[in-house]
Amino acid sequence: MACVKKNFYAANQIDGKGSLSYKALGNCQARPYVKPLAYQFHHITTDHAQKSGIYASYGNMANADAFKGSILVGPGSFSDAPYAGLVVQATNKCLDKFYNELDEQAMLAVNFAERKQSASMMTARLFQLARFGKALRKFDLITAARSLGLDPKSGIPTVYQKGGRPKGWSNAKARSKIVADAWLEFHFGWEPLVKDIFHATQVLQSPMTGKTVQANAGVPFKERDFQKPYSESYLREAEGIVLHKCGATLLVTDANAYAANRLGLTNPAAWAWELIPFSFVVDWFTTVGSFINQWSDLEGVKLVDPWNASTLVVKTCKYAKSYSSSYLEVRSHGVLFSRNLGMSRYKVAFRPMKGLSLARAATAIALLIQFLPR
Fold it and tell me: Relative to the CA of 125, which of 172, 190, 201, 301 has its CA 20 to 30 Å away?
């Protein structure tokens, strides 16, 4: 059965309670329905409408099929404020997860042919981690750093004496610098070590041939806009969530090119960004680094049948206005969905603000302490 257009549209054009708008635009395919296809869908319903006094009509604000401006759900909501910005946030968040998963799966595919080396590497890393833990229990920071392949002199004060605590430990200021230096050394040393062990076990467990990679992310919202020009007041409220999902089948086409990309050898712009001091801290709060890296993220790999989809779920939205004793109120809800072929792209934006993880908080404090005078 060939793929053909399958469209449906229905709207009762009522400007009041019970108004609805339903539209579906897409394709159909033969079973087993495994190929991602472009598809659009929206379903909007007016749940409540009341008016009194001078308001003789709803002015199309209760018509589910009519455009209503920002915040309120409507046929064009994806591109309206504030939803356009929320779609960008959800897309960037989803791409972070997608490329992290793609990176892990691609390296599994590259390393599967070398699974014997992976077994040896995992054994070596486990012994390395054991030596690190043993030294740390004895508070032997120099041996602990060396067990991770780090240079103790770069971060641990030379006044430290093996078998005892560092000189100046009783001084709070000196102690804070010693702890901060040690944290930065160990955090950027043991975290890659543990990941190496995890990835090696994955290589030994699962051969890779055309792995499907998918990711999804959501950004909840609660918007409110109140205005009172002169003697008439207006209120717009909306609550819901914006979702983004993407996926593709991964094929490794050039293992050497992908390895070079992971080492940062294929994107000069990424070099320049990494050379800027504390650029990784900026990446905690923005997508600048991800935006730069996306131009070489697929070097050496191929995405087969890539797709991306955005969903706007408005659980409830309210429009109200009043003038003296006159009042008008409309409440509605709706779902908008759009799936497109191809992979999404990063856009430069601030990441949604939320509490720092303990590891990031500790790293940020340790970095700040470096600027304090000795």
Answer: 301
